[in-house]
Amino acid sequence: MPSLRVASRAKPEARRPEPFELKGTMASFTVLRLKSTDLELVEEQLRLKTAQLPSLFLDAPVLIDLAPLGDEVAALPLGEVARLVRACQMVPVAVAHIPDQLRAAAVEAGLGIWRGPISTRVRAGAEPSSAIARTTAPDSAHGTPAPTLPTQHAGPVVVTTPVRGGQVVYAQNNDLVILAPVNPGAQVIADGHLHVYAPMRGRGVAGAQGLPGARIFCQKLEAELLAISGAYLMADEIPASARGRAAQVYLEAGECRVQLL
Amino acid sequence: MSNASKVVVVTSGKGGVGKTTTSANIATGIALQGKKVVAIDFDVGLRNLDLVMGCERRVVYDFVNVIRNEAKLNQALIRDKRVETLYVLPASQTRDKDALDAEGVGRVISELKEQGFDYIICDSPAGIEKGAQMAMYFADEAIVVTNPEVSSVRDSDRVLGLLSAKTSRAEVGGTPIRTHLLLTRYSPAMVKKGEMLSVGDVLELLGIPLLGVIPESKAVLQSSNKGTPAILDETTDVAQAYLDVVFRYLGEERQHRFIEEQKRGFFGRLFG
Predict the structure, then answer these.
(1) Nearest CA in chain B to A184
(2) Would the CB atoms of A144 and B171 count as touching at under 8 Å?
(3) Does A184 contact B157 at a Cβ distance shorter than 8 Å?
(4) Average pLDDT per consecutive 10 residues, chain A (261 residues; last block may be shorter)
(5) Whether the Cβ atoms of residue A228 and residue A206 lie closer than 8 Å to each other
């Protein structure tokens, strides 16, 4: 799945102000998996879909995945695809699985060429007959797609299977509720609050896109690292008194505080 | 016939934990029950399974030859001299893991299914790269071999994540792969002294059903050097442990309730 991970784990320090800030957040794209070259149909359905959840789709960057088209791709007017995506108030940024003969057309349409991996997993039955499909929840380049990925719901993301080492679960613009263990080496990230009602042994991030009010709630706090809105707490900095206990983490004066529940 | 075949990957992430030993013993043990079994060595370039199973002198063609249509499947399959229904498909010593591709591996596995093999045991190489991914890709079930130490457990956890995502079953969105935990090189004495993770510690982290515990034993090294899977010498504790595992595994196929009782009994013995 497409994602960008800017890995700067340093705590903000009282140095001279920097001209920019690199945060350990993940950028996610909406993926438009084209399954039909009937662009009128695609546009019609895409308009319907985006109208249902305008807050989620408005100005969203879109990656156009041509893989499902197979050989039909050769006849695809890419410029027209880019136009229809823009017409639906989204911003097409790149094309994935593009054959060489279409590359020039992509560049002409102002689209980049995506070479990274994309998870093609779409929850079975999510959109049985639709010409488009959407996946969210990115995944680091070497990570494994999460066991449970949101497909199109705007509600909080609920995960009921263990999140294992190497897996990443990201709740974009939302809270993340996890009802199974988060194991060492796993990353669970929410733009809102993060709840883990099981042992939390991996890395957890709340307020990933910058939300100082976000909190992390753990039933059994054994995390490797916790972060809220860019402020980090490493395993060694978690008070021994809170280890293995039910606790919440929140920001106070820019620092992470741990409080027993 | 073909839907009755079961593809089982023996995997771990970490090297040296006992994947090949386990593949050899479980394949032999299941074949001893009259099932037709083949063990495939996916460790292309570092072939070992043929040595552990004592058929290294009869290797002419290998798995990669079959994938590349350089040999027929039946030319590469080696029939075990001790157990009639047991076969080995050896790895190539001269190629590397890039010689494996999903299409070729899939073709060989379907051909084995057509030949009526009941169990196709895939002995995975260490790591999580191509060889390991090819070994797990077509699996219906996985036996995750873990040693009672932190790094092995963590690697197994990573592999469990891959099993739930990077396999044919995960991609199609069907029933997930059934996973079993096999704890090898276990030493209750060391656990007691706090020098080794306990069964409970490992289960707490991995959270998958326990298929069995294989004790640490010299018999494993001796049998591997002799090329005779330990399970064939029933006097050793390792053989008994692997026999337990095989029966439990086959029992699980038939009756779930039975396996739970078995497990409790096993736990009782272990901690009693």
Answers:
(1) B154
(2) no
(3) yes
(4) 42 60 58 86 83 72 86 84 87 87 85 71 32 32 40 72 93 94 95 96 94 96 94 92 95 94 92
(5) yes
- What count of Cα atoms within 13 Å lies in the side-chain half-sphere of residue A82? 15
Other Cβ atoms less than 10 A from the Cβ of A156: the count is 15
ipTM of the complex: 0.74
- Token pair of B252, please? 């699980």
Of B181, B186, B49, which is closest to residue B125 (Cα–Cα)?
Answer: B49
Who among A145, A167, A181 is closest to B207 (CB)?
A181
Distance, CA of B25 to CA of A145 (rounded, Å): 33
The DSSP secondary structure of A68-133, one letter per residue, reads: GGGGGGGG--HHHHHHHHHHTT-EEEEEES--GGGHHHHHHTT-EEE-S-------TTSSSS-S--
Q: With beta carbons under 8 A apart, name residues in chain A contacting B171.
A: 120-121
The domains found in chain A, sorted by start residue, are 27-137 (3.30.70.260), 154-260 (2.160.20.70)
The model's pTM:
0.66
CB B30 within 8 A of CB B243: no
Hey, how many other C-beta atoms are within 10 angstroms of the C-beta on B248?
19
Contact predicate A8/A22, CB 8 Å: yes
